[in-house]
């Protein structure tokens, strides 16, 4: 028991002594540390107390239920009595509990005994300005050498840092590093690193991207770097990286903050920081979900240091952080006293496993060179200073931080950089390329690298560009030069200036330069200008309402953080428009949509709010929405604001009411007609465009002329707003000579869609989306001219009108008609793959294992030149040793005067993010941003498919139609070249001469054809392949290598003409007999492909064999597709105002037509595409739709035309024939007179309608002249006879009955006309008129007297018989008429009805007319000898009428004169009636 008591007493005394000693040591350090004194205490000379400076601190409060810690903030000023002892802020005691005495109680007891403070029982150290947690850890001391005791936590609701605490921890240059921990350990100190073991391996257990490679480990070296591969055995100063003779010598991959041989130094006892000299390493993982205090503070401090220090890192959040510190390290080779000449620096690496940033903090630099590099042994000066920079390793690339690295100004690193405002802090982005984030004051050259972000912006302007390069002075003006536009920069800090990109009329990569003060523009870079149609979309439309003519509302969204992180900021939404009325393009402000809107990220536009606007520039038909900050200085302290732009949109939703007031309700028609009128004055452009491929497959594999259209892409944008029912569209990759653009869209069946068929068809464009140089002229501006001339009219002509409207069909059929694929010629294809195997343009396969750089294909034409070169390197070793075969690793290509494009295969461990490197004129370009998927350079367009993010497929399109496709899979590369038919018989190189003749494929540079056996690899190698090897000099007919030379590696570095590959074809021929398994495996993997079997037998790599077979099959399929003749019947035009029921135009297609309502289909209703590529010949004419009114008119005109063209000529011919016949007859017989035929077409009823029963006039009621023949009245004629006087015949009773005179009886019609005079025997006689005694009447007075008596008698006895109807035979038999009838007769007859006649027609009867008519001439005995009808039968006292005997009637004697003839009356002279 006593022993235990004594033991306890000794422990207590020891503990008390330790506390007193610690108190004295920390007090002495505080006396010598002005920073600590100033930071924590303010001691007045006359004061009787020590005033603690108020400080906002954070403390964790343990929960009794949860291990989570919530911060608290307390600000308290405490007064104490003066004391000679000062409380050390670095005090940290292990949180042990001893007999109920906690660390808090021990601290309280210690402070009371020290006399520093008199505290109560419930004291709290936070009231003194200290941030001490319950476990006793002092968080307020940023230089606390003791590591925090907590363990990483990921539970919810943990520590939340305040802005004050964040500002406090960021106020120190150096990050945390600890040489102790609360458990008695050594904290971050790496005691295993010393002079005998200078490096230590560290597993990271996460991906660390660095300089294109990716690592999950590192090695911490005493020599001032983190390395990822072994350094060379010896170093040669000055250091040059990468190692040029790699792989003979190792080329390390490292991050060098101070690459020089070092050793651990020493510190003086009087130094403020007594942490142990040496190397420290701390790794904090998974910071995204950390909730413990130290994890949160590390994440927030690193995040904001990088975001504010490096341009372009505004969204970076670190996931893992490495803190490596070299404290008080000296140079190697110095004397012992040199151990006190030390440097202290720190490297902080932060990554989110995609982006990686490095922070170099230089705290103390007293030496620059080690003795091996020529430095002296005392001060470490005089030799080659340390290397500062980065090396990717494996002989690839490096970055040396000039002008400091290996230069005498290296000691200025502690006073330069100004990262986050700290002299001595330098920041870099190091994941893919090394981008400096700190200013550089000590460098001068004609072309200095400029760091800026973002590196791309919308052509319309408003992108805020953060610039780092020179160290800026607020008193000096900074000018930014974008292409041809200058703007002034805004000073942010010494390390950063901001310039707002202006409106640029350009696209692609342009010059970007800055000048400081009066200096010239020597800080330079390249800035990518995005066309408005392809720019990053920052204003989103929820629906397609903005494209409608008159929508009710438009919902827009945007990311509010693109403007500011302040959610209460006010923004302004405005509307802009574009037009081209002069040579200068005009982008004009229209109206403010909303002036004071909170930056919430969404807004609804109601177009009805703007219907009463009356803008002066209401002729603007398309434009953009713009969003910017209303008062940016309020939120950012700067007078500039970022600007967000929408994609181009039509402005019908805004201007529709104004256009209605201006043009009427049919304002879309007015807008369209104005455009059509103007467009007709412009040049025709479709003749310069390439023809569209017939099918989607052909379009996809025409890599030289067509690329995907981002408006309708099956891989990235299948909505196809302006091409509904299409699944994919392609456009010409480069503008044609006049700047036009071809577009080809395909439906779900892969058939070309045409505007002649539907409004959604393919539309050629007058202006390419990329514009045309010079871009600053109207009609040549990227996107804007395209919308003004091609997109804008589509809305006014078609989208806002009916598809069948006149304007839309004019737009589709006349102004923007699709071009069909008739005459389309698929390109020729050649390729290389494997190790390596070739297929020429004519389809000849062969194998050539050359080592070096060779010409794959080049044009021998002087006017259209192109060249494609390939680099082949040896295949890596397999398990049996070196492989005597090569593979394709790079391609370089160039057009006539275009930019040189180079595509390289990246090293194995550098393919984690990008599989291929693409260089344009030696500068690396990337395609991972959406707006940079398609990049246009001088004469060439480069793009990657939208569905790929790793650049494993690159397509290069030259303006001559030449295309090059490069594909990578698992490190194996293939190259394919696509040529249009313009290059037939104009190519040479390893891909041969394209002539459709395989016999002349292997053409040598001198133009001769190599005579080799295609199965003899040796002959091909020596007699053909090596002839096309490139060298460092220009070889006639071969050329000069186009590859860029990194690290001084010329063509001779890769070329080796003495390399002897394997010349045997089959694995069983070149593999040993004991490796039959490999032969069988090759057969199993490859089948019939000898290329695949060869590659597997050489490399034993199944992946390489697989992709060799895959590339071979793909190339063969492409060649078969392109060589297949496509038969197309071409465009079958849709009838205007009609439609086709199907749109196919391939052989066998049958197309039916329909017309719109109100139209009539004319021509063939169906057409068929024949096997010969022609539409069948229409049977009824070409199909078209005719309006019904025009159709009716046409029928009437046709009838009139038939009458005019057929009947009239026929009548003329008849008249002419009659005239000739009459002339002929008169010539033979001058007394001949043509007999006039009588009409049979009129009926009795028609005759009665022409002349009423009591009407004796020559005209009817309407004044129309009656027909000349009045058969139902009297017979009159004024026809004179030759040589005879004019005679006027008196009116005579017509001898017709009441029946139809034109009716027919039996099968034969009745004959009407002049009646023959028959005698009793049936012979005809023409007898003269006789008097009542039977003698002819020649005396005219007697005749007139008799005629007067006759008229009187007739009128008196039976007037109706003469005026109303022809007399019947019964009335003729009356006695009072008997004498008159013997004196008068008619030369015509009437067919008397058998009902009124007592006789029937007998053909042979002499006394009866053959048509059943009653003879009325005097010699007709049947009429004149029968008794009157009123005499009873059997009466004999009544004498029969006798027929008079008259002379025959001839042309010579004429008609007899009637009695009492008088001169013709006027009514009788009007016409000659028969």
What secondary-structure arrangement, pairings included, does this model have?
Layout: H1 2-31, H2 34-40, E1 41-42, E2 50-52, E3 57-62, E4 69-74, E5 79-80, H3 103-114, H4 163-169, E6 199-210, E7 213-221, E8 225-227, E9 254-259, E10 262-264, E11 278-284, H5 293-309, E12 320-331, E13 343-351, E14 356-364, E15 387-391, E16 398-400, E17 417-419, E18 422-423, E19 425-429, E20 435-436, E21 448-449, E22 451-453, E23 456-458, E24 464-468, E25 478-482, E26 485-488, E27 490-493, E28 496-500, E29 508-516, E30 523-530, E31 539-541, E32 554-558, E33 570-579, E34 586-598, E35 602-605, E36 622-629, H6 633-636, E37 643-645, E38 649-650, H7 652-663, H8 667-679, H9 696-700, E39 706-708, E40 726-732, E41 743-747, E42 752-753, H10 784-799, H11 806-815, E43 828-833, E44 837-839, E45 845-847, E46 852-859, E47 867-874, E48 886-894, E49 901-905, E50 916-920, E51 923-925, E52 934-937, E53 940-943, E54 953-958, E55 963-969, E56 972-979, E57 987-988, H12 1017-1023, H13 1051-1054, H14 1067-1070, H15 1076-1086, H16 1090-1099, H17 1102-1123, E58 1138-1140, E59 1150-1155, E60 1159-1162, E61 1166-1168, E62 1184-1187, H18 1188-1228, ...
Parallel strand pairs: 21-30, 23-30
Antiparallel strand pairs: 1-2, 2-5, 3-4, 6-7, 7-8, 8-9, 9-15, 10-12, 11-12, 12-13, 13-14, 14-19, 15-16, 17-18, 19-20, 22-24, 24-28, 25-26, 25-29, 27-28, 29-30, 31-32, 32-35, 33-34, 33-36, 36-37, 36-38, 39-40, 40-41, 41-42, 43-44, 43-56, 44-45, 46-47, 46-57, 47-48, 48-49, 49-50, 50-51, 52-53, ...
